[in-house]
Amino acid sequence: MTTSRRRFLKAALGTTVVAGGLQVPGVAAADEPQHSVPLDHIGIQLYTVRNIMTTDPQGTLSALGGMGYATVGVSGLYGHTPEKFRDMLDIGGVRAVLTHTSWDAMNANVERELQIARILGVRYVVVPSLPGSLRTVAGYTHAAAKFQEWGIKCRSAGMKFLFHNHDVDFLKVDGRVLYDILVEQTDPRFVNFELDLYWIVKPGYDPVAYFERYPRRFPVFHVKDMAANGSFEDLGYGTIDFPRIFARYAQSGISEYVVEHDTPRDPLLTARRGQEYLAKVRF
């Protein structure tokens, strides 16, 4: 494990283990300021529950609303029209704060993607990954230019454009970290970032260092935990020091906290644990 990773993995900083193994920060001294995640900004990416969304989308959305989730990140419409999916969200008592589209879909018909987003009522339109063919300095420079173009269109439509990272975006090519090209070659008025905390920690980078270098560029977090062996883990049961990251809320620009787990064994249990952790965590 690298020294940089150790700096932001959980250490013995007053965490308390409660029933079921969930870790939450220990009680602070009376004069120590405490902050919490706003309950109406706790969401979940529907990719986490994709298997049960396929068979019972309305039941799943209603279950998430019943757990206390205020928002969801949309990951496809599961065969429904945008209008029907919006109806299901409303019935379930959750609102779509963002939608994941794709590089190809945005290139093919950006206006159509924005129309879908408008029907869903989202604030953020997110491209979640880039094709492997772009994994060069020239490719990411091209992607930054496209993001700028799409960001201007999103702003004109009353929405905001974001890019979601994976670990491959932190590859160093010709001496440059590819992700940094996207941040540095885009205008924050039009392009910002949904920071997946697992996928920045996994390759050994520190989210806080990015907040310091690029302040207020990260309005959405994918809050995803990491097991000691580096695999995915339910939120609060892993090793990432979320209070340290969340404490930089002013510097990061964070607004939405979106739970995600790529391969949950029990999607609804994972969802419940995620909501409970974010509702309790103090920083």
Keywords:
12 helices, 283 residues, TIM Barrel, alpha/beta, eight-stranded parallel barrel, single chain, two-stranded antiparallel sheet, disordered N terminus, 40% helix
Task: Outline the structure in words.
The two termini are 25 Å apart. Mean pLDDT is 91; it is low at 1-30. The chain has a single domain, classed as Divalent-metal-dependent TIM barrel enzymes (TIM Barrel). With 283 residues, it is α/β, with parallel strands linked by helices. α3 packs parallel to α4 (82-92), α4 (82-92) crosses α5 and α6 packs parallel to α7 (178-184). The chain has helices spanning 3-8, 50-55, 57-67, 82-92, 103-120, 137-156, 178-184, 197-201, 207-213, 242-246, 249-252, 267-280; strands at residues 15-17, 23-25, 42-45, 71-74, 95-100, 124-127, 160-164, 172-173, 176-177, 191-196, 220-223, 225-226, 232-233, 256-259. The strands form four sheets. The chain has an eight-stranded parallel β-barrel with strand order 3-4-5-6-7-10-11-14, surrounded by four helices. The chain contains twelve helices and 14 strands. β12 and β13 (232-233) form a beta hairpin. Residues 1-30 form the signal peptide. Residues 107-280 form the Xylose isomerase-like TIM barrel domain. This is Tat (Twin-arginine translocation) pathway signal sequence. Keywords: Signal. It comes from Kibdelosporangium aridum.
